Amino acid sequence: MYFRIRALLATMTILIMASGCSIMHPVADDYGQYLTNNQKAGQFQQIQVANQYQVPAATQNHHYEFRSAMVGYAHVWAVDFGKILDATMQSKDVVDALGPLTKAAPDSPSNGNTLIFDLDKYSFEDFGAHIVLTIRVKNASGEVFKKTYTADGETQGGKMFWSGPFGMKNAVQQSTKLAMDKIFTTFIADVKTSTLVAAK
């Protein structure tokens, strides 16, 4: 039965591709709801490190698309990292840890500390999300913290294999969240031991 379903999906994929159509799946559109449904009390240590955060244009507008042979090449999965990051900063887990941070325009002045997120790379390969993200802290004195974090979300091959296109968005969201959780956990630990970053 399973193989018949897979064969049917493969046939549908061939027909769709032959017609020149692709099925777009925007991963970020309901990412905030995914975070709400998967919040974890005490996920991160608490620290007040900034008043606001900024997302440079290159990160805000970063758009990544990919296809997966496992779920059918007719499907295109689109990840808009700026939306992912904004949803993360507004999530209960992050707000509980860092406090509510206002999003400010790039290079806008601040009386206190500002978190700045520069995406170096996002990809979804080998059944998992891979993120390279540089986080900076600046204030009126200049840049007081900068570090590049690399994190891999747990692979989701099983979910992709058994659920096909129906579970693919959840697989991307879950692996992306797990990678971001690793980054924030390490960042908070780093800031707690930093002698340069004073609480806001």
Gyration radius from CA atoms, angstroms: 19 Å
Strand order of the largest sheet: 5-2-6-7-8
CATH architecture: 3-Layer(aba) Sandwich
Based on helices, strands and strand pairing, what is the structural class? Answer: alpha/beta
Number of domains: 1
What CATH calls the topology is Rossmann fold
In one word, what is the shape? globular
The overall average pLDDT, rounded, is: 83
How much helix, percentage-wise, in residues?
40-55%
Which regions are unreliable across 5 or more consecutive residues at pLDDT < 50? 5-20
Return the CATH class.
Alpha Beta
The number of E-state strands comes to: 8
User: What pattern of helices and strands is seen along the backbone?
Assistant: HEHEHEEHHEEEEHH
Instruction: Assess the beta-strand content as a share of residues.
Output: 25-35%
Number of helices: 7
Euclidean distance between termini CA atoms: 59 Å
Largest sheet: 5 strands, mixed
Describe the SSE topology:
Blueprint: H1 2-18, E1 23-26, H2 31-37, E2 52-54, H3 57-60, E3 63-68, E4 72-80, H4 81-90, H5 92-98, E5 102-104, E6 114-125, E7 128-139, E8 142-152, H6 157-163, H7 165-193
Parallel strand pairs: 1-4, 2-5, 2-6
Antiparallel strand pairs: 3-4, 6-7, 7-8
Helix pairs in contact: 6-7
Task: Please supply descriptive tags for the structure shown above.
200 residues, alpha/beta, Rossmann fold, 5-stranded mixed beta sheet, 3-stranded mixed beta sheet, 7 helices
